[in-house]
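Long-time lurker. I teach an intro course on protein structure, and each term I like to show students one example going from raw sequence to a predicted 3D structure in token notation. This year I'd like something fresh instead of my usual example. Would anyone be willing to generate the tokens for the chain below so I can use it in lecture? Attribution to the forum is fine with me.
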Amino acid sequence: MKLVVQVKLLPTAVQAAALAETLHACNTAANQVSRVAFDTGMTRNFDLRKATYAGLREAGIGSQAAQHVIKKVADAYTTLHANIRARNLGRPGSRRRARAQSKPIMFRADAAQPFDQRNLSLAVDAGTVSIWTTRGRCKDIAFACSTQTRKTLAESPRGESDLLYRDGKWLLLITVDATEQPLNTDPGGFVGVDLGIANIATTSSGYRAAGRGLNRHRARQAALRRKLQHKRTKAAKRVLKRQRRRERRRATDINHCVSKRIVAEAERTGYGIALEDLTGIRSRVRHRKPQRAAFHSWAFAQLASFIRYKARRAGIPVVLVDPAHTSQRCADCGHVSHLNRVSQALFVCQDCGVVAHADRNASRNIAHRAGVAWDAGRQSSAPAPDP
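-- Reply from a regular --
Happy to contribute to a lecture. Here you go:
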């Protein structure tokens, strides 16, 4: 299966200058190709290559880098057209859609640039990278990463890599073909996972990841942003720049830890994993204004994707189920009523009188539905093995 691992480059001052110059040159070339694509309407990779490749080579861009520049532009227009067809940029005639269609796509000077094994090589044992730059081949650039990442790089075939400069750091995002275990086609049952805001995840096996800490962190970050934005000073803007992405990194780290715990539990017991299919919930559900920020900060899709890819590596089946009435149905007697959900945390069945934690009751319903669906022949929703 395809995974993306991140390593931090530790270039010297001379090497960093060469990398910065390379990113700037490649993205300047990408903007030129984008203008050609916008003016002529040619957005296919092959057509753009015939029209612009020679000019890029004359401008000093290497052969492999030039092809990646052209492909990057073609992919950007493919994504734009897909978003327009899906109406992600609004209806025909909307201001946002008209603005996106009225000008060519532009790339930042430090936007990511793809490299392949012809113009980038990695020496995992030595901990160095050799990469093409506009100043020539830049060798022996040191990199740092976790022990697990280094092991993955050493054991797995590597594909395309992206070089980017973010928050004063040089990063390399490397695609690897990681090994995976055979899928368990006969699970002993399913671990139901109820996703939420007050509790990030609650499983039918008894594990509950409380969201109190993350929600407090988000509230503190929001208050700090409001305070700094109100000041409008240069110092406040520097702090805002330093603070950006901190909340997202915190949420991502928590989702990784929670997903790892859930997959480890399923692997230990020989069970599959059952998740709610929450596709489109942001457009279906309306909230009062004070609740909207918390709801739209809810990273449920990221947590579900982490669970799915970790489960695939471990050979654990994942089943998505309909979330309708899982929080209103009694897992013991099957009675469904909105009166059963007394509060966010309390569930009291109006028929049989059972008292339970609301999220735990919902997770048991999710596990039951997954078992029924699996017995009926539904396939795992974890990503299919690569051909």
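Some talking points for your students: Residues 13-113 form one domain. The two ends are 9 Å apart (CA to CA).
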